[in-house]
Amino acid sequence: MARTGFYPGSFDPVTYGHLDIIARATRLVDKLVLGVGVHHGKQSLLPAKTRIALLERVTRPIAEHTGVKILVATFDGLAVDAARRHHAGIMIRGLRDSTDFDYEVQMGQMNGAMAPDIETVFLAASPATRMIASSLVKQIARMGGDISLFIPREAQEVMAAALAKPSH
Question: Quick check: 82 and 45 in contact, CB under 8 A?
């Protein structure tokens, strides 16, 4: 029986940290669904369509290398509901530090109460990506800093285009 994992996030933008977790999650599942959160109350820099296209492009080499099918889909409600819609039995969550740990364990336990059929699996960030946060990448980019150490070239290009628009 194929194992399906669900990895939710804003991916605004996708970072090397996300890609590290995605690559490592492919060792655990046969199919991985990347859930792009599109919450109406949350202001994203990149539109959902851009985030989806970017994720599909930068994860294609991972899928080809591992043989794991990687799908990208949006969701706007509870992650456990989205995971169920995709028949996922595993929820993937990345942990950078103890702050992430405390929050994610609490969320994992609440998700487990709501969806006992979905197991939350925590993957610790690799040392090289531990410090990367999308919010900090956006802040550095808005201030004209070099973000090439934190996000792939494709993401740098869409970030530059988004920040060049007058509304940002």
Answer: no
Contact between 125 and 20 under an 8 Å Cβ cutoff? The reply is yes
Cβ-count burial 71-101 (b if 16+ within 10 Å, e if not): bbeebeeebbebbbebebbbbbbbbbeeebe
Is 44 a catalytic site residue?
no
How many Cα atoms are found within 13 Å in the side-chain-facing hemisphere of 126? 13
Domains of the chain, start order: 4-164 (3.40.50.620)
Q: How far apart are CA 156 and CA 163, in angstroms?
A: 10
Whole-structure pTM value? 0.94
SS3 86: coil
42 is catalytic: yes
First to last CA, the chain: 47
- Out of 31, 51, 93, 134, which one is annotated catalytic? 134
Q: What tokens appear for 94 in the block?
A: 């990345």
pLDDT band at 115 (very low <50, low <70, confident <90, very high): very high
134 is catalytic: yes
Which one from 24, 84, 85, 96 is the annotated catalytic residue? 96
